[in-house]
Amino acid sequence: MKELFQMLNDPRFHLLYGVTQRFSTGPEPRLVRLNREGFKLVEGVTKKTLVHPRMRLAVHPSPLKGDAFSPIFGRICEINERSIFVEAVEPNEEQRLAAEAVERDKLDLLSLPERGAELGLVLKSLGLNTRSLGQDCKTLIINGLNPDPGVTWAEPMLLTHLDNLKAGLEVLRRLSPAEKILLAVPKEMRLHHHDIEVAPVPSQYPASINALVIKAVTGKENPEGVGIVGLHNVWSLGRVARTGLPLIETVVTIGSFEHSGNYIVKEGSTIGELLEFANIELKNGDTLVRGGPLRGESLDKLDRSVTKGSTGVFVVEAGTIPPMEGHSPCINCGACTLICPARLSPGFLSRYAEFALHERNRAERIECCLECGLCGYVCIARRPVLQYIRLSKHKLAQADTAAKLQELRPLTPPFSDGAAAKQGGE
Prior knowledge:
By secondary structure, the protein is an alpha/beta fold. Helix content is 30%, strand content 18%. The strands form four sheets. Strands 1-14-13-17-15-16 form a six-stranded mixed sheet, with helices on one face. A four-stranded antiparallel sheet has the order 2-8-7-4, with no helix packed on it. The chain has a four-stranded parallel sheet with strand order 11-10-9-12.
């Protein structure tokens, strides 16, 4: 990566903000929208079912994917292939008693004998995704940087919510097979934890991307036996360890040009309610982003919701950045190639994707793209470069899945039963 490229000196790309205030509590949602793609509904969960906080609604067949729980007292108002919608209601006596029973049955994770994969199944039953937490490696790095410019929850997690961090680290040691766990933090941060080794890393975006954090800590690209997990996941682990209850919250930065704050919000909270709670007005021409400003996704509706993995909700005001022009041709200026930390040619990748030449992108090693978003940021022609690349990755994944299914399809016999019998009679 070209360290002297002028964009990297932009203070907006510094990932250390000096924010140490405790997280604010978000709103009690009037409606929640929970993801159910790939999940199987628990028996008895149907439309109009009355639910209570931390009631299990659906389970996923993968042992690494946490179960889905209701975050509120409510009634299921709609179920489709992608989502479960729950509208808030005033709880009746039965709902209150059920919620109290869940509180009484909380688990003391730190006293459980389970370790490794067995502990992972316990965490799954509490709503935690454990794919990155329990990965098989000798060295596990915790990425302690804010993931995107504008996201500011990492410093409070490290400096203010220490009890949560310590509990998360203790459970992580029991879950992970790693012999060594390191905490990567911005090199300007004076942080010392007596129970974990701290590794200083650069604090200028895109240094927060996992692959670059690994390189900064180890000095190698893609070293064997090294895994990485986000601080956000460790916070969730600590939250469950401290409460002993299923995970129904997440931490997000809600921000605009004039306002920014970190909130503990209920999973499934709609974007519209979060903006209303934070007193952020969405005006005509503004762009609504879920995730970070560079790596996030733009949304077309306010009824979209946050998930356990959401890191932020942002409003990019009209006129603050030049609009993207999807039909603009590439002008071959080379800015995207200069800025690419993976040493790819995003201009070529985006053009191949634009004209559905996805197999050419496979030859160009599109899978090495880190999806940092810098290519689209520096594009003079204002092309949606990252979106083109993501589209091509999606199409290639679909093609790979179709090819595997084709391999698994049983071979058609040369004759049907009737034809074989007829031939045998002859």
